[in-house]
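Example record for the data management plan.
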Amino acid sequence: MRYLLISLLLLYQITALTEEPAQDNGTVYRSIDEDGSVQYSDKPTPDSEAVKLQQPTILPATPVQRPATTTIQKKQQKSQYYQSLRITRPGKQETLRGGQGIVEVSVAIQPALQDGHQLEILLDGNAQRADTTSLTLQNVYRGEHQLQARILDAQGKALLESERITFFMHRPTVAKP
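Corresponding structural encoding:
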């Protein structure tokens, strides 16, 4: 008798585990409460009505083709003179604070800047030439700015460009009374 009871319990558990769960038919019910607010639920109430749902529109994803190399990588590959060029100061997404709007820019070049080549710093697309790897920008307005460095040959042709970085200038203001 004991074995029979254990066998029946085991058989019941096996059938309970193998049964598929009941499928939800996806019915949605709409009702309006005493305040006039529309309520939606998956459980019917006495004053609710079934809402017919449309099939969702499903679009296949389109694959995105990315270029094999970026413009910066192509310029770096073309450069036979330099291995790397990057802006070390200010840092990416850095916020600078100062009343004068002075920005100290530092650039790392590997190997060092060669004779006849010049360093050019672009602040929001406006170029300033530099003879060394550091430059002080004056009177930079408050807000978001883009900074990029590039090395030019004697003819002014860009040999290598750094990654463009974003920084923020925070300058105090004197409010007018």
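Summary line stored alongside the record: Helices lie at 2-18, 71-78.
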